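Progress note, sequence design subtask.
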C-alpha cells in the first residue's frame, strides 16, 4: 500500500516510515505541513494517509486535510494522534483512529485493517488501540 505520513514530530514520522517500509509498504512521503500534504494528496498517489491531527499550521489541521482528501481525492485517512477525543468527535473524516503512542505491531496491524477496509472487506482483526469509524470507505 502507498502511504503518506503526515506528522509534525520528526522522530515519530521517521519511525513510522521505517516501520511501514520495513513491512513492504511504499511511503509516498513524510510531511509536516498542510502545504506539503496537499501537494502529495492531489497527485492521487497515496492509498492511505497516516494523519496526525495537530500540525504546525494549526490545531485540527489534520482533520481538515483528512476531510479534503476524502471528499476531493477519495483518499482515506487513519488518524495517528494523541488527541483521541478530538478524532472521535470528527469520525466522519477518517477510517479510524490509532492512539499515540503505539508500537510497531499495532501500527502494522492497524494499517492492515485499514487496507482491508479500503479493499471493501471487513478487517480480519482490529488491534487494541485502534478504533474504526467506518465499516468500508
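Output:
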Amino acid at each position: 500500500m502507498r502511504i503518506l505520513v503526515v506528522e509534525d514530530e520528526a522522530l515519530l514520522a521517521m519511525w513510522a516510515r521505517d516501520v511501514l517500509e520495513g513491512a513492504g509498504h511504499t511511503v509516498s512521503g513524510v510531511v509536516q505541513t498542510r502545504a506539503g500534504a496537499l501537494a502529495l494528496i492531489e497527485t492521487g498517489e497515496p492509498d492511505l494517509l497516516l494523519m496526525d491531527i495537530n500540525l504546525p499550521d494549526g490545531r485540527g489541521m489534520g482533520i481538515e486535510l483528512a476531510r479534503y482528501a476524502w471528499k476531493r481525492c477519495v483518499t482515506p485517512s487513519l488518524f495517528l494522534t494523541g488527541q483521541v477525543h478530538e478524532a472521535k468527535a470528527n469520525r466522519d473524516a477518517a477510517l479510524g483512529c490509532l492512539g499515540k503512542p503505539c508500537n510497531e505491531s499495532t501500527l502494522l496491524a492497524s494499517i492492515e485493517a485499514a487496507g482491508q477496509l479500503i479493499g471493501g472487506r471487513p478487517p480480519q482483526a482490529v488491534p487494541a488501540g485502534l478504533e474504526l469509524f467506518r465499516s468500508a470507505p
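The domain at 2-132 is CATH 3.40.50.2300 (Rossmann fold). Work on this subtask will continue into the next period as scheduled.
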